[in-house]
Amino acid sequence: MEKMTFDNTQIEFIRHENQIWMRGTQIGAALGYKKGGDRVSEIYQRNKDEFTATMSTLISLPDLHPQIAGAGQMREVRVFSLRGAHLIAMFARTEKAKGFRRWVLDLIDDFHNGTEKAREAYQRAAERLEEGRNRASSCGAGLNSWKRAKPVLEGDLEQKQLQFELLLEMRY
Question: May I ask the CATH class of domain 2-113?
Answer without folding.
Answer: alpha beta
